[in-house]
Amino acid sequence: MRPNKACPVVLSSTLPPKILLFRHPLAGVQLVKGTIEQGEAPAAAALRELSEESGITKATVKQDLGCWDAQHLGQVWSFHLCQVEGALPEQWSHQTQDDHGHLFAFFWAAFDDLPCNDCHPVFQRALAYLNNALEPLQSDRG
């Protein structure tokens, strides 16, 4: 599977860890995700998308979480667990420069209380994939 979308995954430092999500003003709750540009490595794309969509500029890729066929518009997502330098607030908003300049509202969600009803079905499936992929990390940390 060759990925065409990169998805940075950020977990909180709290126990048990929570996952970073955002509310798109038109499209509901989402994970940060974007197109991998030609010649760009998926991990580099994940860090770029994290910066563009959330304003988080000091992050590194800690672990490759694999590729996933979204079964939506030919998208194959490459997930990357990212480590952020410094503490992040409980919630914040970020005005994007792309995606029509939307204001994204970021927040943390517990894995046992994900806002799936507010997500497009593709993000519901992505969160289910991540919950399984991150399960060993959740039990190690919590």
Q: Provide the CATH top-level class.
A: Alpha Beta
- The proportion of strand residues reads 35-45%
Distance between the termini: 32 Å
- Going by helix content, strand content and strand pairing, the class is alpha+beta
Helix content: 10-25%
Mean pLDDT: 93
Number of strands: 8
Unreliable residue stretches: none
**SSE order in H/E notation?**
EEEEHEEEEHH
Query: Number of helix segments?
Result: 3
Major beta sheet, strand line-up:
4-1-6-5
Main pleated-sheet profile: 4 strands, mixed
The third-level CATH topology is Nucleoside Triphosphate Pyrophosphohydrolase
Using the CA coordinates, give the radius of gyration.
14 Å
Descriptive account of the structure:
By secondary structure, the protein is α+β, with helices and mostly antiparallel strands. The chain has a single domain (5-140), classed as Nucleoside Triphosphate Pyrophosphohydrolase. It contains 3 helices and 8 strands. A 4-stranded mixed beta sheet has the order 4-1-6-5, sandwiched between helices. Strand 7 and strand 8 form a beta hairpin. The protein is globular, with a radius of gyration of 14 Å. The relative contact order is 0.26. The mean pLDDT is 93.
